[in-house]
C-alpha cells in the first residue's frame, strides 16, 4: 500500500508544480508573436520524430537485443508532441474548422486508404496486400474499422487524437481556466477507468482512450506559457546537449538489461504499469482491487514522470536556435506518415547483421558491452535523423504533398465558402 501512497504524493507534487510554474510564467508573459516560427519548436519536432523511429524499431531483433525496448526511457516524445500541439489552439470559427478537417482528417484518410497499403506492399513485396479489407495485413474486417484504427494501422493514433483535441478545444478554449483544468482531469480519469475491449491493436474507437488520457498534455500546452522558463534557463551548449543524449542512451542501455533496470528502479515502473505510459494496462478490479482503486494515483505519477522527462529534453537536449534540421521540423508530418517501411528495413538489416556478428558480440565484458551499445545507439540515431530529414526534403514533399499537406483543398474550400458571401455583398 505504501507505494500507492507514494504515487498519490507524486501526483500532488506534480499538480502543485504545474500550478506554480503557471503562476510564475503568467506573471511576466509576453504576447506571442504571430507569423514567426519558433526554431526551438521545429527542432523539438524533428528530434521527437527521430525518437518516434526509435519507438517503432523495438519489435525486431536488434543485434543481441531481442526486441529493443524503449517504452520507459524514450516514451516522452509523444507527450511532447501533444504538448506542442496544444500551444496552437484557436477559438471556434468556420476557417479553423476547415483547417482541421482538411489538414488533419484528409491526410488521415489518405494514409489509411493509400499510403498504408502501399507501405505494406513495399515491405512484403506482394501486390495482393494492396487492397484486401479483412485479409492480411489489415485484419479489421471492414473499411470502417480500418479508418477507426482497429487494425495494424493503429500506430497512426496521433492524427486521430489530434483531430479530437482540435475540434474539442475550439469550444473549450473560451471556458474559464479552472473549468478547462477540471475537464482535463476528468478526461484523464475517464481514459484510465473506461478502457476499450478491443483487439490486439485497438485503443478504442478512433483511439478514444489515448485521446482521453493524453488530453492533459494538450491542455498543458494550451495553458502553460513556457517562454519565461526558456529565458530563465540558458540555452544548452553543444556539450550539454551531447551529455543529455548520452544520458538518454545510457538509460536505454539499462532498460534493455532487465535485471539491472529492475534493481535500479526497484520495480517502480511495474508499479506504474505504464506500457506505454500513460496508457495504463491493468487487470479487472475483481482480480486486482487495490491496484484498480489506486489507478488515479498511478496515472498521475505516470504523467508526472513523462512531464519531467519532456521538460528535461526540451531544456537541455534540443537546440534553441536555427540549425541544419530546423526547416525539416516544420514538415514532420511527411516523416510521420512515411517512415515505417524505412525503419522496418533498418531493423531487418540489423537482424541480418546479428546473424553474422552474434558470435563476436556475445559475452562481452560489461564495460565493452556498454561502449558497443552507445556506439550502436549513436549510429542508429544519426541514421534515423537522416531518414527523417530525407522524408522532409522538397522532392518528397512535391510527390506526396497533394495527400499529406493538401493546402490546395483548403484553398478550394475557402474559396467556395467565400463566394456566397461575396455574392451577397454584390446584391
TrEMBL record:
Q: Where are the transmembrane segments?
A: 72-89, 96-118, 138-159, 171-193, 236-254, 293-316, 367-391
Q: Which GO terms describe its molecular function?
A: acyltransferase activity, transferring groups other than amino-acyl groups
Q: Any idea where the Acyltransferase domain is?
A: 41-385
Superkingdom of origin: Eukaryota
Q: State the organism named in the record.
A: Effrenium voratum
Keyword set, alphabetical order: Membrane, Transmembrane, Transmembrane helix
Q: Could you tell me what this protein is called?
A: Acyltransferase 3 domain-containing protein
Q: Which InterPro entries match?
A: Acyl_transf_3_dom, Nod_factor_acetyltransferase
Which Pfam family, an example, fits this chain?
Acyl_transf_3
